[in-house]
Structure formats: C-alpha cells, structure tokens
Design goal:
Blueprint (H helix, E strand, L loop, with lengths): L4 H57 L6 H29 L5 H13 L1
C-alpha cells in the first residue's frame, strides 16, 4: 500500500498515460485495418474486372454469338476491360506498398535519406 500521496499521484498519472496510449494505439490499428480492407476490396474489384474481360474475350473468340457486330463489340469491350483491370491491379500493387518486404523498405529509406 502506498502511503505517500505524491507516489500515489505519480502511479495514477502513469496509469492514465498508459491507458491513453493504449487507446491511441487501438485507434491507429482500427484505421490501419480499415485501410487494408479498402485495398483488399479494390483488389478484388480489379481482379473481377480482369476476369470478366477475359471471359468476354473468350466468348467472342469461341463464336458463341451469331451476330458478328455483337461479337466484335464484346471483343473490344472485353479487351478494354481486361487491359484496364491489369493496369488497375498494377497501380494498386505499386502504390499500396503493403507487399513491400522489409529489405525493400530499408533500401527505399536509405535512398530517400541520401536525397
């Protein structure tokens, strides 16, 4: 038991600071999870766009449609969708930096500190 009021106040202050820090850490963790979830949703959307584009190309190339104009339109739209899906996945991969390894991050920090 602590009889000194100064010691008790120090311990109480220390406990309050630890609780505040823990609260801030949990807020940062939830924000990080939210960001990771957004990137995952974007990645799934871009992958679906790529798959649907490739599916449209395969339908038109296999000749499952009788109309030549419709087949060409589907082929062009499928090609554009596939290309934009690949580009979107590439941009998400390069800008998100969630796939960076520890070595790549260290190299990037070293290069940025030299500039």
């Amino acid at each position: 038991m602590i009889d000194d009021p100064k010691e008790e106040k120090k311990n109480l202050t220390r406990l309050i600071r630890a609780a505040e820090k823990k609260g801030l850490d949990s807020r940062f963790r939830s924000a990080r999870r939210h960001t990771d979830l957004q990137q995952l949703i974007r990645m799934i959307g871009h992958a679906h766009q790529l798959i649907l584009g490739l599916l449209a190309i395969s339908i038109s190339l296999l000749g499952m449609l009788q109309s030549t104009g419709l087949m060409l339109t589907l082929f062009v739209l499928g090609s554009l969708s596939a290309v934009s899906g690949v580009y979107s996945l590439y941009r998400l991969y390069t800008t998100s930096r969630i796939f960076d390894s520890l070595v790549n991050r260290a190299i990037r920090r070293a290069i940025e500190s030299q500039n």
